[in-house]
Amino acid sequence: LHTPMCFFLLSLSLLDLGSISTTVPKAMANSLWDTRAISYAGCAAQLFLFVFLMAAEFCLLTIMAYDRYVAICKPLRYGTLLGSRACVHMAAAAWGTGFLYALLHTANTFSLPLCNGNAVDQFFCDIPHILKLSCAHSCLRDVGVLVVSILVTFTCFVFIVLSYVQIFRAVLRIPSEQGRHKALSTCLPPLAVASLFLSTTMFAHLKPPSISSPPQDLVVAVLYAVVPPAVNPLIYSLRSME
């Protein structure tokens, strides 16, 4: 844990473990007991923890992209730019951003009166499905939350893409074909997982209600809630060791 990459992998594994433990065990228990019940407080806690952990993870993926950029493009300055104190501060910033982001969404979602029943058509308490139960919407507040969400996700995604573009440019200058292949195989899977997470999340939250269907919503939710935490340990541990 004295190297930045391993420190960030530890933080990522904790976030993955927390996010998948927030939704899957409850869904499995409900399936075994043939019930779909969850308390109001439990639903709010589940939504807050899920959004908090997933937002913090996306911020951490952005930091890890920067870590790889410095390691490949500025190797002589790696120890200076990513010292132990800088790593702790960046990880704390990722967790703090996730906490504030989740607090904003949870407060906005559960401040609305729910008058269209109490059945969430999903295997966990997800924001779009809870908002379907609301009969009161504030356009100004919804726009504000949407702007904050797009700003955070778009900023992180652009930073990740720019980091990997610089990495690919550096990799293509490697004279050895085997070296280029190894570097690309290490960089492409993390970028694919981050893209899958962001694209499915934005599709789930921004798609028109007219094209929504329960099977489609379930598949999309699994793609951003279950798949990334499940495959991240394989990609970021085994591939990074290579």
From TrEMBL:
Pfam families to which the protein is assigned, alphabetical: 7tm_4
Membrane topology: Multi-pass membrane protein
Regions that span the bilayer: 45-66, 86-104, 143-165, 186-206, 218-238
Compartments in which it is found: Cell membrane
Keyword entries, A-Z: Cell membrane, G-protein coupled receptor, Membrane, Olfaction, Receptor, Sensory transduction, Signal, Transducer, Transmembrane, Transmembrane helix
GO CC terms in record: plasma membrane
Signal sequence residues: 1-20
Domain of life: Eukaryota
Keyword Signal among record annotations: yes
Main location: membrane
Gene Ontology molecular function terms on file: G protein-coupled receptor activity; olfactory receptor activity
InterPro entries from the UniProt entry: GPCR_Rhodpsn (IPR000276), GPCR_Rhodpsn_7TM (IPR017452), Olfact_rcpt (IPR000725), Olfactory_GPCR (IPR050516)
All copies of domain G-protein coupled receptors family 1 profile, residue ranges: 1-236
Function noted in UniProt: Odorant receptor.
Family: Belongs to the G-protein coupled receptor 1 family.
Protein name per the record: Olfactory receptor
